[in-house]
Design a protein that fits this description.
The protein has a two-stranded antiparallel sheet. It contains nine helices and two strands; from the N terminus they run ββααααααααα. It is mainly alpha-helical.
Length: 203
């Protein structure tokens, strides 16, 4: 090939079912739709699919659980921060759910991509690109509580093993997890989003 000829630029965007084209390397808030997020998250399995039940336990269901745990941990917290909890794993609608040990092995490039997507999602729905530290910490605490429930009910962990990895949730009401079909998980996620941000079409 003639050295003067340029290699075609690799495609870095993904076409969504909404018709949007999301640039994964430089994501624009204008190309993000809640229906695309819900559709994707409802079809991404937590725990690499290694869970009990007729259906995978989806990231969409996990996010709903995290938002509920956060609301219990801090009663009266505003809807906007509960929305942030619901969206905390939203980038996984395009990059998938890597288990924590694999994320550590992949390193900083993966995290940088995830952070750019997260910032664009926040801006799209009226949240600050970077959350206040106390909110981020609260979401992480709720995330660990949700992981404990999932690990012990669905992923085959003993109580002792889950406590070692995630700590023991305290002050939270008991929860019974039941993996949903993708369409039902998608509907539940969009429904919760609309409860927290009823005027989302105007953002």
């Amino acid at each position: 090939m003639n050295k003067s000829q340029k290699q075609p630029k690799a495609r870095a965007w993904q076409r969504m079912l909404s018709g949007r084209r999301l640039d994964l390397l430089d994501p624009s808030p204008f190309d993000i739709e809640i229906e695309d997020i819900a559709h994707g998250l409802a079809r991404v399995a937590r725990w690499n699919g290694q869970t009990h039940g007729d259906h995978a336990f989806s990231v969409a269901e996990h996010c709903i659980l995290v938002e509920d745990c956060m609301a219990q941990m801090k009663p009266g917290i505003s809807a906007r921060w509960r929305l942030a909890a619901l969206l905390h794993d939203a980038p996984e609608y395009v990059i998938g759910d890597l288990i924590s040990p694999f994320k550590a092995a992949v390193g900083l490039d993966y995290k940088a991509l995830e952070n750019r997507l997260q910032a664009a999602i926040h801006v799209r729905f009226g949240l600050p690109a970077q959350l206040p530290e106390e909110i981020s910490l609260l979401i992480k605490q709720a995330d660990k509580a949700a992981a404990f429930f999932e690990a012990t009910q669905l992923a085959g962990f003993s109580i002792e093993e889950a406590e070692d990895f995630f700590g023991s949730p305290r002050g939270l009401r008991p929860v019974k997890l039941m993996p949903l079909a993708a369409r039902d998980a998608q509907g539940a996620y969009v429904g919760r989003f609309r409860d927290l941000l009823p005027d989302q079409d105007q953002t």
